[in-house]
Write a structure and sequence with these properties.
two-stranded antiparallel ribbon
Length: 221
């Protein structure tokens, strides 16, 4: 529940102009579930449940870390199939056009909602774009494989989860440079600001492990 609420709230904030234009359609549609918002909301929800039941948070984080990355990759397959979360217009041979995407990858859409994007060299009509969803599927599977293998050699509790934060953050931060998103702070998108926090938090706690009563769980991982 926390994940769904967080995902939807982030989407509303990220697309506030469109929500104002069609509030019922945007808020109550099945679309518009943003992973980073879901990660924050889900983390808060899980924290409440774990604390209520006196369960070890860091151990749980280590267990789900590889699965979060796998789930992210699977989710991006869905994004590709519906034509959502694609990248900037491109002339590269593997560019994909989403005529019926959400929204369609048309010249008009980019010119209207993303005027900062340079459309020089592109003709009006449906444009081919970077299939960033596929890029992320590939990267997510690579990171998942790394985390899955690393789970067998956990040095201290929480290290796998914090490694996930770093790698997932770097992956999303990099892909945002060719994603179709608004830019806010110093030319960065909202997702990039959040991923910088993920990288910072993950790096700090990976090299400054918690002094907790939770034991290393190599045997049970």
């Amino acid at each position: 529940v926390g994940g769904i609420l967080g995902a939807k709230l982030y989407y509303v904030l990220e697309n506030f102009g469109r929500v104002v234009a069609d509030p019922m359609g945007m808020i109550f549609s099945g679309a518009g579930l943003v992973f980073l918002g879901g990660l924050v909301g889900g983390t808060l929800g899980v924290t409440i449940v774990l604390r209520k039941n006196d369960l070890p948070w860091l151990t749980f984080g280590d267990i789900v870390a590889p699965l979060l990355m796998l789930g992210y990759g699977i989710g991006r397959v869905g994004c590709f199939l519906v034509g959502d979360d694609y990248g900037l217009p491109t002339h590269l041979p593997w560019g994909v056009s989403f005529e019926n995407g959400l929204p369609p990858s048309t010249y008009y859409m980019f010119d209207t909602y993303y005027p900062w994007i340079d459309l020089t060299g592109f003709e009006p009509g449906v444009l081919a774009v970077h299939p960033t969803q596929i890029y992320e599927v590939i990267l997510a599977l690579i990171i998942f494989g790394f985390l899955w293998k690393k789970r067998l050699s956990v040095k201290h509790v929480g290290s796998l989860f914090f490694t996930y934060l770093i790698l997932a953050g770097i992956e999303r931060f990099a892909i945002e440079f060719i994603r179709t998103n608004d830019k806010y702070i110093l030319g960065l998108s909202g997702a990039q600001v959040i991923t910088l926090l993920m990288i910072g938090i993950g790096t700090y706690f990976l090299f400054n492990p918690f002094k907790s009563g939770e034991s290393t769980h190599k045997e049970s991982a």
